[in-house]
Structure formats: structure tokens, C-alpha cells
Write a structure and sequence with these properties.
heterodimer; A: mainly alpha; MetI-like fold; B: alpha+beta; D-Maltodextrin-Binding Protein, domain 2; Dipeptide-binding Protein, domain 3; 2 domains; six-stranded mixed beta sheet; five-stranded mixed beta sheet; 17 helices; 31% helix
């Protein structure tokens, strides 16, 4: 295990683009953890200074101030926490739901398999963002409901992936051997199939994070995310529309933040895929 | 270089030919068309199922009423009616109709159409229904001859005349021919028009808006300057509306844009901005029917926890005037000199200490897409947190909030919104907002105080305006002392128009969206 981790790190360190991705993600995590220390005005998440509203970027306010006179830079740092929480929990739940369903459906060759896959097909047939909007709108705007909406619409991607991978793993000799030795289906699935398909799951999860953050921001933008005065990035962009183009910094700061984080996940995910999943490797990577 | 010139000439001629082929009119032969960018969608054109400000243009431009509110301060003017007569007991209203008024299909506007229209409102139970449901019995309105309409009210009503403009007269013969399963022609009328108004419908798409052309035979006649066509297009995004105005795609939009955008439009050479004092108060509903909000001390604490000056002077750049009572400053019935509440956390704490029992987390409602309501909610939340009261903000679209407002259980603890002018009478504000008989309909505070209600009910039947004014002043003061809601400001209207647009006539009812006096230069 240690060997393979070392291998991954040494491979990654030679891939400049995924290093950039990794750097962005580490920065995001650090920012989220140390937001109260890094933010020049940590109280501005809930505190307002209306006389100072819509000030441009300056040394006092790196990204300017918003419609309530709060420091946008400080709010963006705290917004990172919400973004991470939404992405990690939503993707985590999707993995926890999607992977077992994919494993069971892939291992079984009965009606259970068909049933599970058809259910996931139904979810995949509706565009994810539209389904998420419908769920979040019905349940009312809040962080919890965004997470719920994202998880409910995201798990089929993992179920599909794990299903396909499991089906191909079942033809491998080591699986046949363990079945011949009398291993239980659970044992085969969890101890033989799962470890061998984990690399695809990790890659899918990393890239999926980026997509989740984008969808979460879209929900926030539409007013279905956490309500005001939450510093959630998508919501901040929605708020800023009234003040464009004069207060350009207001929309720019959260826009750039979302862009960097999504790019970070994608670059890092691409790098991971090249190492862990050589079949789908980028062509220029030799 | 020479080649380039030849090329330019060639391109020019190609462009001109193309323009003549596709029929883009050049100056001089152009028909004048006014395009208005509207923030809310026209999801129905039926004048009897809606009664809001966002979709007022379809009613004002394609339909007429017996009376109409004009100008600012609003004057109630006979419109389809030539004259009217009120019986001594205040129960019988007789309107004489103008001769020569015709619907868009050429048939005359007659008394039976007016009768049909009020019956239709009473039957559909939507739109302006609640204005008439208490005073008019179905079947009680009569047409003794083709040009006389008699309304027989159940009780005397001093606000009836003010609400007559809401009875938009529809072509009864036409609608009866379109009726399906007793729907009063509702399905057909939601997408078509059966009016006599200044403009007749030419195109309608719920997703885009409506277009109409001038009705040359309108009974009010036309001067020598008018618009040939009007279009009311739905443009939800504020920035799209402002940019469209600046580059000439739109000629006007609503007058309640954020001040930052008004400044931008004022600075633009192609635009001008009309300013009028409107009647549209901004306030927060408090759910008086829910514990612990039935405690006046808590309501007073809430009223002292809102930073009025910061909101008006900073967030709204001083573009509005403080209006501390539930009646606009610029209408009779407003208690002059009333100071209302100030932002004072010490007082708030003192009142809070008197509240018995624990205070739960307060749900503050705001309207998605209306930044001001969210900013007010956030400002209140900030004040509340300083006096140790927890709150959460729920921002939902108007379509959701307006349904919850009518349900005692679903209603938020508080909700920020505006109260616009539906008719220029104090009853439109305090008289509906805090009357017991409007609870759950137009009183969304579940506020019902017997003393206040007595004043309001007296004022609703009293014919003498001076006496009515005294009652409304007293009632408004009592509701304010009782902190029935948090009353913040009265709006000014900033109507942005293209420099070519002349003749805009503003009234708080309709916000200058009636286009018959407008023309292009």
C-alpha cells in the first residue's frame, strides 16, 4: 500500500497540470480550515456596514465590499467551507449509495440487477441539474436540501460505473478462483472485486467533485441554496447581478473562486486517472 | 485603398438591398412602436383572474372600466361611464354609459357587458374578487336599459367607487360564444382579449409577452400623436432590462429599479428618468396570530431592532422617504407627525425583557429576486442577533410566498414586501392589511383588534371623507403603537424612458403603464 502511494506521488509530481490541481485543492482545504484566521474581517459573514457598501477593491478590502458593506474577501473564505461541505457530503453520500448498488447489480445476474440498473437509468434520463432544481425547490432552500438534491441525483453515476467494472472483473481469473474456493458473494464483492475497481471509483469521485461544486453553485445562484446572508459563492454571484457592471468585483470574486476550485478538481482528477486507470489515459501522455 | 472603397460601397449596397428585401423600415415610413421590458411574465391575459401590479399593462391597455384612476395624486375619473349617481343610503350606484364606445370587434359596449363582467368576477373568485365579495351579491347588478347599470350593494360602501376601475368590462357576446363547460370563457380569455381598450391584441406568448396595435375607434379618441403599436416583453434580469434600454431595444421599464441602476440610466445620453412620489409602502408583516408574536412587547422589540436609517440612507441611497405607519405619507388618512419606531437596541432589549416565555428562532421571509427584501431581512437578522434573538432567513419566489401568506400555518413569522396601490384610498392599506374580515386574504398578519376594526369598518361605510380620514389616522396610529408590522418607507418611482418617448402619464395605480398618451418623437 505504501509502495503504491509512493508510486502515485512520484508520478503525480512529474505531471505539472495535476500538480497545479493538487495545489489548488490543498489551498482550498487550508482556506476552509483557517478561514477565521485568514479573513481580515471574519465577523463580516453576519455583520454589515451599509455606509461602506459597494466599495471597490483596495488594500482594506482585497475584493471590495458587497451590497451590505461586508468584506467580500472574508466572505469568500468562509464560502469555501460551505462549498467543501456540500461537495464532500453530497459526493460521499452518492458513493456510499451508488457503489453498493453497482456492486450488487454487477455481481447478480437476476432480476435484482436489472431492477437496480433500470432505476438508475430513470435518474440518468432526467438532466441532473433539472432534477436537482425540482428536488431543492420542493423541499425549500437550505444547505441540507442542496446536499440531499445532489446526492439523490448523483449516485447513479457511481452505480453505473461500478456495475460495468464489476461485470468485467467477474470474468477475471482471481474472482473465479475465489468463487471456486467457496468464498461468499459478500466476500468476493468486498474483498476481491472492490479493491480492484477502486481506482476508477477514486478517479470518478475526484472529477465528480468539480461537477458537484458547479451544480451546487448553480442551485445557490437560482436561490435554492443557503439563504441570505450566507456567503455561499453561487448566491453571491446571484446577488451581484443587480450591481453589474459597475460593481464588477462583486461577481468576479466568487466566479473566479468557483472556476479555480472546479479546475483544481478536474486537473487533479485527470492526473489521477492517468496513473490509476491507464486504459483511458490522455493520448499525449505517452 | 481604391479596392477597399469599392468593397465598402458594394457592402453598403448589399446591406441596403437586404434591408429592403426583409422589410426593415427606414426612417419616415416607420410605425411607432413602444417596447416595455417587464419584470414579471404575463402568464394570463384574463383581466378578471389577476389583480396585481406586475401584470397591470394587459388590463390597462386592452380593457376599459366604468371609471379610471388617472395622474398623481390619483383622480378617479369617469371612463366608460358618462356620469354616476349614488343613492342617499349609499347602497345603490347608477352608472350612465357613454354612447359610441365599441369593443375591438366593433360591437357596442352596453350595460349587459358590465353586468356580465361583475358576475364573472364574482363567479371566478379570483383577482379583484375579494374587493366585491362582501358587498355585491351575484345577480344583484341590473341593466334597466342598454346604457344604464345599477349596482345594488348589500351594505353602504364608501370604497366601492374607488374599486370600480377594477371591473374591467369584457365583451359578453364574444365570451359567451367561447364558453366551455361553464368556464365563463376563461380558457379562451387567458390567451385572447375581449376588451374595448386603447390597444387591441395582435400577438401573445406567455413566455415572451404581448403585442397590441392601436384601436383607432376607441371612444376617448386620439390626438395627432400616438403609438401605433405597443409591446410588453418579459425580461426578468435587471441587467438585461437596463442594457436593453441603453442600446434602444426597450423604451421603458418599471420604475422600481435599484438606485445603482437608476444612476447608471440617468447618466446615459439616450435616457431620461421621470421621478414621481408613488404610494407603495415597504414593510414587514409580523404574524400576530402566532405565539409569541401576539405579545406586543416582542413586536415592539422587533420594530426597534431594524436599522431604518442605514437601510434608507445607505442601501437605498436615500431614494425613498421614511413612512412609519401603514398608510402612505402622501394620501389623506395618514396621521401626520407620527414618528414611529427608531433603531434603538437598548429599547429593544427592554421590551424583550418583558416578553414572557422563551423566544423561538424567528423565520424571516424574503422574496427571491427582490434584493431589497433580502437586504432588509439580513439587516433585521443582524439587529436581532445583537439583542440575543435567533432568526433564519427564508427567501422564496413570490409565487410561493403569496400562497403561504394566505395560510395561517404556512405563513412565515415575518415577511418583507411592498403594499402597492390597487385603488387610491387608505382602505387599500391599513383598511385591508389590519381588518378582521380580510384575515388570510388581504390581511396577512392575522391581526384583529376590535377597536381598530371598529374604526376601519365605520370608515368603510361612512360617506364623509373628513370623518373617514380621522378614523384611518387613528387606526394607523393604533396599529403602529401596537407594532402590528415593521413599517419602513414609501417608494418614489423612477421611470426610465428613451429620450424619444414623450407624453408619459404616471399614476400610482398602474405605474404609468397605460400607453394611450405616449408617443415617440
Amino acid at each position: 500500500m505504501l509502495e503504491s502511494t509512493k508510486f502515485i506521488i512520484s508520478k503525480l509530481s512529474r505531471d505539472r497540470t495535476s500538480l497545479v490541481g493538487a495545489f489548488l485543492l490543498i489551498a482550498l482545504v487550508l482556506i476552509a480550515i483557517f478561514a477565521p484566521v485568514l479573513a481580515p474581517y471574519p465577523e463580516d459573514v453576519t455583520e454589515f456596514h451599509p455606509p461602506e457598501r459597494l466599495f471597490g477593491p483596495s488594500m482594506l478590502h482585497f475584493f471590495g465590499t458587497d451590497r451590505m458593506g461586508s468584506d467580500i474577501f472574508s466572505r469568500m473564505l468562509f464560502g469555501a467551507r460551505i462549498t467543501i461541505a456540500i461537495a464532500v457530503i453530497a459526493v460521499g453520500v452518492s458513493v456510499l449509495v451508488g457503489v453498493p448498488i453497482g456492486l450488487i447489480a454487477g455481481y447478480n445476474r437476476s432480476w435484482i440487477s436489472d431492477g437496480l440498473m433500470r432505476i438508475s437509468d430513470i435518474f440518468l434520463a432526467v438532466p441532473q441539474i433539472i432534477l436537482a432544481i425540482a428536488i431543492a425547490q420542493t423541499l425549500g432552500p437550505s444547505i441540507e436540501n442542496v446536499i440531499l438534491a445532489l446526492s439523490a441525483t448523483y449516485w447513479p453515476f457511481w452505480a453505473r460505473l461500478v456495475y460495468a467494472e464489476t461485470r468485467s472483473a467477474l470474468t477475471e481469473t482471481y474472482v473465479e478462483a475465489s468463487i471456486a474456493l467457496g468464498a461468499s458473494p459478500f466476500r468476493v464483492m468486498v474483498f476481491h472485486v472492490l479493491p480492484n475497481i477502486s481506482s476508477s471509483i477514486i478517479v470518478r469521485t475526484t472529477i465528480g467533485m468539480g461537477g458537484t461544486i458547479l451544480t451546487a453553485a448553480a442551485l445557490g445562484f437560482l436561490g435554492l441554496g443557503p439563504p441570505a446572508p450566507s456567503p455561499e459563492w453561487g448566491r453571491t454571484i446571484a446577488e451581484s447581478r443587480e450591481f453589474l457592471p459597475e460593481a464588477w468585483w462583486y461577481a468576479t470574486a466568487p466566479g473566479v473562486a468557483i472556476f479555480l476550485v472546479v479546475m483544481g478538481f478536474n486537473l487533479f482528477g485527470d492526473g489521477l486517472r492517468d496513473i490509476l486507470d491507464p486504459r483511458t489515459r490522455r493520448s499525449n501522455d505517452g | 485603398m481604391k479596392h477597399f472603397k469599392t468593397f465598402k460601397a458594394l457592402m453598403l449596397s448589399v446591406a441596403l438591398t437586404a434591408m429592403s428585401l426583409v422589410g426593415i423600415p427606414t426612417d419616415g415610413m416607420a410605425k411607432s412602436k413602444f417596447v416595455f421590458a417587464n419584470s414579471s411574465p404575463y402568464d394570463t391575459l384574463d383581466p378578471h383572474v389577476i389583480y396585481d401590479v406586475g401584470r397591470v399593462a394587459s388590463r390597462l391597455n386592452m380593457y376599459d372600466g366604468l371609471m379610471r384612476w388617472l395622474d398623481n395624486p390619483p383622480k378617479l375619473t369617469p371612463w366608460l361611464a358618462e356620469s354616476y349617481n349614488i343613492s342617499a343610503d349609499g347602497k345603490t350606484y347608477t352608472f350612465k354609459l357613454r354612447k359610441g364606445a365599441t369593443f375591438h370587434d366593433g360591437s357596442p359596449v352596453e350595460a349587459k357587458d358590465v353586468v356580465y363582467s361583475i358576475e364573472r368576477i364574482l363567479a371566478l373568485k379570483k383577482g379583484a374578487f375579494s374587493l366585491f365579495s362582501k358587498s355585491i351579491e351575484p345577480g344583484s347588478t341590473k341593466a334597466p336599459d342598454s346604457h344604464t347599470v345599477v349596482f345594488n350593494l348589500k351594505t353602504a360602501s364608501s370604497i366601492f367607487l374607488a374599486t370600480v376601475p377594477a371591473i374591467h368590462v369584457v365583451n359578453s357576446d364574444l365570451l359567451k360564444s367561447k364558453e366551455v363547460n361553464g368556464d365563463w370563457g376563461g380558457v379562451w380569455l387567458s390567451k385572447n382579449e375581449a376588451g374595448s381598450g386603447s390597444f387591441e391584441l395582435t400577438r401573445y406568448d406567455p413566455a415572451i409577452g404581448f403585442q397590441a396595435k392601436r384601436y383607432a375607434d376607441h371612444f376617448m379618441g386620439w390626438g395627432d400623436k400616438y403609438l401605433d403599436e405597443i409591446e410588453f416583453r418579459t425580461v426578468k434580469e435587471i441587467n438585461s432590462r437596463v442594457l436593453g434600454l441603453m442600446n434602444g431595444d426597450f423604451h421603458g421599464t418599471d420604475g422600481y429599479l435599484p438606485q445603482d441602476q437608476v444612476k447608471r440610466l440617468k447618466a446615459d445620453g439616450n435616457m431620461y428618468v421621470l421621478e414621481e412620489e408613488s404610494m407603495r409602502i415597504f414593510y414587514s408583516i409580523i404574524h400576530n396570530g402566532r405565539k409569541p408574536f401576539d405579545d406586543v412587547n416582542l413586536r415592539k422589540a422587533l420594530s426597534h431592532a431594524f436599522d431604518y436609517d442605514s437601510f434608507i440612507d445607505n442601501i437605498l441611497s436615500g431614494s425613498v422617504a421614511r413612512n412609519p405607519v401603514p398608510v402612505p405619507n402622501n394620501i389623506w388618512g395618514n396621521p401626520k407627525g407620527e414618528k414611529g419606531y427608531t433603531f434603538d437596541l437598548e429599547k429593544a432589549k427592554a421590551y424583550l425583557a418583558k416578553v414572557k416565555g422563551p423566544i423561538p428562532e424567528i423565520t424571516i421571509g424574503a422574496l427571491t429576486g427582490y434584493g431589497q427584501t433580502e437586504q432588509a431581512a439580513a439587516l433585521l437578522q443582524n439587529g436581532l442577533s445583537k439583542i440575543g434573538v435567533k432568526s433564519k432567513i427564508v427567501s422564496e419566489p413570490w409565487s410561493v410566498a403569496s400562497k403561504k401568506m394566505r395560510d395561517e400555518q404556512q405563513m412565515y413569522d415575518m415577511l418583507w414586501l411592498w403594499r402597492s396601490t390597487y385603488y387610491a384610498d387608505p382602505n387599500n392599506w391599513v383598511g385591508e392589511m389590519y381588518a378582521c374580515d380580510q384575515v388570510g386574504a388581504r390581511n396577512n398578519s392575522w391581526y384583529c383588534d376590535p377597536e381598530v376594526d371598529k374604526l376601519l369598518m365605520e370608515a368603510r361605510v361612512e360617506p364623509d371623507q373628513a370623518k373617514r380620514a380621522a378614523n384611518y389616522e387613528k387606526a394607523a396610529k393604533m396599529v403602529t403603537d401596537d407594532a402590528g408590522g415593521i413599517f419602513v418607507y414609501n417608494t418614489k418611482w423612477f421611470g426610465p424612458y428613451n429620450k424619444k418617448v414623450k407624453g408619459v402619464r404616471f399614476s400610482p395605480i398602474g405605474n404609468a403603464q397605460e400607453m394611450r398618451w405616449v408617443h415617440m418623437e
